[in-house]
Amino acid sequence: MKKFLLFLTLTCVVVSSLFSQSADPARDKRMEWWREARLGMFIHWGVYAVPAGHYNGHAINRIGEWIMNRGKIPVAEYQQFAKQFNPVKYDPDAWVKMAKDAGMKYIVITAKHHDGFALFKSNASKWNMVDATPYGKDLLKPLAEACRKHGIKLGFYYSHAQDWTNPGGAAARKVASEGWANPDSAAIDAYTAAHSGHWDPAQTTATMAQYIDKVAVPQVKELLTNYGDVAVLWWDTPTDMTEEFAKKLQGQLALQPNIITNDRLKRPDFPGDFKTPEQKIPKLSELDGKDWETCMTMNGTWGFKSDDHNWKSITTLVRNLIDIASKGGNYLINVGPKADGTFPDESVKLLKEMGVWMKTNGDAIYGTQKSPLAALDWGRCTKKEKNGNTILYLSVFDWPANSQLVVPGVSNSVVTARLLANGKTLTASNTANGLVINVPAQAPDTIASVIQLEIKGTL
């Protein structure tokens, strides 16, 4: 018994120590806005918008921004596309306004993707928007100004390891997630790290160490110095990354003390502030209590591809958002602008429809916590706490045919219940099967009707 008590005491000490080490008030403060936001816009834009999925008269399979890799296009030949990249219709104020009207609270744009092309003026490489295109202007500065004007947080995606144009950058043989059902980000990293290779001798005229020192580190410094407050640095694909390289890149974060980062700098030693499941929504059993963000395309590609018309419905997008929020995550929805600087018409339409739903039902998303209830067969739930009471937002996908919505696991007294769509007050009663809310015969919203339910105390 004495040995058992000693073991138990030591275990408690260790557990207490672990909790104290994981508690980070400074990080929680930095993450406040992100946890409140829940919804953001991803933008994949670059030279790849010019070929738009086609090379030498042929459609190149898979995602548009990987066309250089998939088509094994020589560096010098790919660089010719930059001479046609002249986005004269680019209106960053309109972009930011569309994101804001859609209910999005932050934007993350591909400052540099795997093709190595920088959307900004860079002294580290001439392969950039100012020096290599007829447009000749930095694309990020006016976007940063528009974000500040409209109160939208700005983040930069940066491909820190893969670079198929600047010599020394890493290169993966294929997109690891292509054809995979619900790929896991860690599995993608492991695959690309084991299947790296180049196809043009021009890519290997420098070492990766030289690339890190002369291109990646200086460009990250430029991004964190020249554009005001940067809210997020979104690393991608740590192919061939080493701890030494990662430390050099991470060291630049001191330039933006309030910045947050994702988990793709180098796993597992550099976890960042949030995890990034890609093109999938995790199951509850897959979540570990850490902050997370699902990034997902509206159609089948990240970068613009002229023949990809596989667009998700607004119902799918909204219900994805609700599902993600009900599990405590964020949703980063991608737009792939065209080479002229405009969003595809389908993207504009979906963003407008998203905004209509969010304008009415945003309270069920912003600043909410994950559901305290067991899985619901009719929809999802998010939660807030207010003055000692609990507010549940019940997003109903399948409206009850008998006009009675059963909420299992709730026995608390009801303070108020109302529909967000029209403000209509609803009645409710406690039963042996849970709380029963009397609802109208017809759902007020075919996508998702939200009931705001305030109950006494906590669940």
Q: Can you walk me through this structure?
A:
The protein has 459 residues and is an alpha/beta fold. Helix content is 29%, strand content 18%. The strands form four sheets. A seven-stranded parallel sheet has the order 7-6-5-4-1-9-8, sandwiched between helices. Helix 5 packs across helix 7 (140-150) and helix 5 crosses helix 12. The longest helix has 21 residues, at 2-22. It is elongated, with a radius of gyration of 24 Å.
Structure characteristics:
disordered N terminus; 4-stranded antiparallel β-sheet; 12 helices; 459 residues; 16 strands; elongated; alpha/beta
Set out the fold topology:
Elements: H1 2-22, H2 25-37, E1 39-43, E2 54-55, E3 58-59, H3 67-70, H4 75-79, H5 92-101, E4 106-112, H6 129-132, H7 140-150, E5 153-159, H8 185-194, H9 208-223, E6 232-236, H10 243-250, E7 260-261, E8 293-296, H11 314-326, E9 330-335, H12 345-361, E10 379-386, E11 389-396, E12 404-407, E13 414-419, E14 427-431, E15 434-438, E16 449-455
Parallel strand pairs: 1-4, 1-9, 4-5, 5-6, 6-7, 8-9
Antiparallel strand pairs: 2-3, 10-11, 11-16, 12-15, 13-16, 14-15
